[in-house]
Amino acid sequence: MKKRFANPLKNISEQFEKMINGRLWLKVMLALVLGVLAGILLGPDLGLVSAAAVKTITSWLALPGQIFLAAIQMIVVPLVVASIVLGLAANNNPAAMKKNGLIAITFILLSTAIAAAIGIFLALNIQPGHFVDASSLVESGIAEGANIVAKGFPAASELPSKVSGLIPKNPLASMATGEMLQVILFSAVLGAALISIPAQQSKPLFDLFSALQEVSLRIVSWAMLLAPLAVFGLIAQLVANLGIEVLAGIAIYVFTVILGLLIVACMYFAVAKVTSGQPLKVFFINVRELLLLAFSTSSSAAVMPISLNVVEEKLKVKPEISRFLIPLGATINMTGTAMYQGVATVFLAQIFNVDLSLFNYVFIVTMAVAASIGSPATPGAGIIILSMVLEGVGIPAAGIAIILGVDRILDMCRTSVNVLGDVAACTTVQYFSPQEVAVEKYIEQS
Questions:
Q1: Which domains, from first to last, does the chain contain?
Q2: How far apart are CA 436 and CA 446, in angstroms?
Q3: Of 4 and 307, which is predicted with more confidence?
Q4: Buried b / exposed e across 121-144, counting CB within 10 Å, b at 16+?
Q5: Closest CA to 297 of 2, 10, 16
Q6: Which listed residue, of 66, 118, 172, 195, carries a Cα 20 to 30 Å from 254's Cα?
Q7: Per-residue burial over 88-97, b = 16 or more CB atoms within 10 Å of its CB, e = otherwise
């Protein structure tokens, strides 16, 4: 059977090459600083501009950000479908996939749930939301018309219907309404079915999905050109409407997320030290460039070719494991995203005074895991998936505007953790793999 995923991996890297060389991350960080300064000049603290004029000016400044989010949201569904189908296609050995699949899924789900729990724990103890005044948000119109009624975890009698509801009766309708879990399940079934039939018959569809992925990533790269303007306008609007006091709360929120990501990263390094068979210093040197590149691009998909090279050449992971887990992990292994969603959900609940019960926290962890699995490997999509988690516990999705201005920086950080998780997943699966293939033999074959 011919390799079906080599060209898409190469094309992904090429599509984002200009973005990497252009130092987009540096432009975004500069835009963030300028946006804060512009917001202070326009804000109520200095009183240089009237409130009516500020509202008009900031609404126009935020237009690139609204266009940016709309463009990303527009392409999420086709990108998820193509990524999952091609991720399954990356494995050319169905027998190996069956043997290693259970280990990989267990590792991914367990680590993602732990990461979401870490995020909730940190947010509950640091309480970053208590530094932001909810009344100011209502007056500014950010939370206008929002329903602040917490929903409970589904009753036991409702769970069977919830589970059966995950199966999309009409996949196209699920795609049209943005029901990501149903889209993911349909894509996984479609991908599994395609790799189970002869390659000659499945090749036209795989070529179609490959083209769909390339087109989706091209649209994302176009949208990313607006990222600096989007961040500038959104953060300027936020600071100008709420005043400089909001910066304290946002800064503590950013600190909480980064602290959680560092804890998750340390967890992955501890796992890799055991499963990779390399000293921690050597392992860090091997993955350092990969993590920096992931930080720069904010895209797990963009660094997939580099990830494959690192795990196969430097960490000596068997190709049948790496070529299955790296593409698939870029779609479903989003531990950093899950941790971020745990912090963001509790942060917004604290702002809007939404009381969360134990069942709500269980629901947040469950949805964070499910939503992270549905997050496409593209910049900015995690903030969109977060709205599903917020809706599930009755937190106003409009509150996302509060954290959107700093999301780009956090997206860069959590992408590095996500990619590190993909690497750790590969070393873990090889460590526990039932296949008895000596590493020395693989090295000789390489």
A1: 6-445 (1.10.3860)
A2: 17
A3: 307
A4: bbbeebebbebbebebbbebebbe
A5: 16
A6: 66
A7: bbbbbeeebb
Whose tokens are 């004029």? That residue is 53
What pLDDT score was predicted for residue 262?
Answer: 95
CB atoms within 10 A of CB 215: 14
- Percentage of the chain exceeding pLDDT 70: 67
Instruction: State the Cα angle at 80 between 76 and 84, rounded to 5°.
Output: 175
Within 10 Å of residue 148's Cβ, how many Cβ atoms? 16
Of 287, 309, 325, 269, nearest in space to 103 by CA: 325
* Mean pLDDT score, 37-65: 82
Biggest CA-to-CA distance, the chain = 73
Say whether pLDDT at 243 is over 70: no
54-63, 320-329, 422-431: least confident range = 320-329
- Mean pLDDT, all residues of the chain: 74
* Alpha-carbon torsion (115, 120, 121, 122), positive or negative: positive
SS3 content of the chain, % helix, strand, coil (to 5): 80, 0, 20
Question: So what's the pLDDT on residue 377?
Answer: 52
How far apart CA 294 and CA 69 sit, in angstroms, is 21
Assessment of whether the complete model's pTM goes beyond 0.70: no
How far apart (Å, rounded) are the C-alpha atoms in residues 6 and 213? 13
- The amino acid at residue 35 is G
**pLDDT tens, 3-29?**
444 455 455 445 545 554 556 667 777
Q: How far apart are CA 113 and CA 366, in angstroms?
A: 7
pLDDT category of residue 375 using cuts at 50, 70 and 90: low
Are residues 128 and 43 in contact, defined by beta-carbon separation less than 8 angstroms?
no
Contacts of 15 (CB under 8 A, 6+ apart): 214, 217, 218, 221, 302
3-state DSSP assignment of residue 107: helix
pLDDT confidence of residue 371: 63
Distance CA 123, CA 237 (A): 25
